[in-house]
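Hi P.,

Sorry for the delay on this. The queue was packed all week, but I finally got your sequence through. Input first:
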Amino acid sequence: MTKSMRFILVSLMSIGPCAMAFAQEGMPPSAVVVAEAQMLQLAPSVDVPGTVISRFDSRLASELAAKLVWIAEVGTVVKEGDTVARLEDLTFKLLEMGAQARVEQEQARVKFLSSEKDRLDKLAEVNLSAKSQLDQVVSELAVAESDETMARVQLGLTQISMHVTHIRAPFDGLITERLRNIGERLNVADEVIRIVNPNALEVVARAPLNTVNFISDGAILQLHNDFREGEGSVRTVVPFGNPQSHMFEVRLNVDPEVWTVGESVRLSMPTAHAKEVLAVPRDALVLRREGTSVFRINDDMTAEQISVITGLGDGSHIEVMGELKAGDRVVTRGAERLNSGDTVAL
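Then the structure:
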């Protein structure tokens, strides 16, 4: 190596540290997001699978043997009482007309016999009518009145048949499935259409029996899946477990703005009573080779790495034990680029 090359190399080595120091001094503060460590009531929990369902989910069936002539489209929003399918009604109209004619016939017969009874009653007052004739008319009138009642019953049945040729929504909801097509001949109890109320949602889950003592009606539990997270309030607990599975059923009210029918979720069920602990968001944890830590932001806006030991977890928060106290600001976004002493900007 020539003398000139050695001179250049020594010069670069002497300039390097100064340039690096200058670069570091000129670097802008790291942008971070922070949250406060806080004292929370946490309990150990276990995740159990659940499903979002609607409390109002019905498959409506035909009450008559008739041909389907119209059915609502999938996606139609309906109100309680709206027609969602219609059956051919010609046969039932004819039956109704026949029943109405029978009622009118029996009414005329009752009217005639009533008049005849009144006439014979007046004659009997002056002993001009045979008692046996009056008794016969009274008997025929009673039979006629009974026949009129039966005719009215038959008319009512035909009117019911006419009414149920229109299949109606039993509640507000959304048409989610057409189970039969126009023109098909239906039998009694054949399912025709499915309607679901998307605004009356709940989560149904089966949880271990050892968690039943740590929840009650109205308790708030955490829910999550791969796409979203939220919470639900316990609507009811059915504390009668299956002897084989040792599980019981729990149902939670959930927000229809967050969840949809049929969605799979994970439900955090407590396995012990809650206790007050110092907790931070899970996103604040930094997992490195030397262990778990968080970065605390001091008053001079510098980051300080604090080693912690984790404990109970509940939803988005987790217990931490270390040189932290409630109110300390910890980094939840941007910690992966930090080192102790770095200046940060919020």
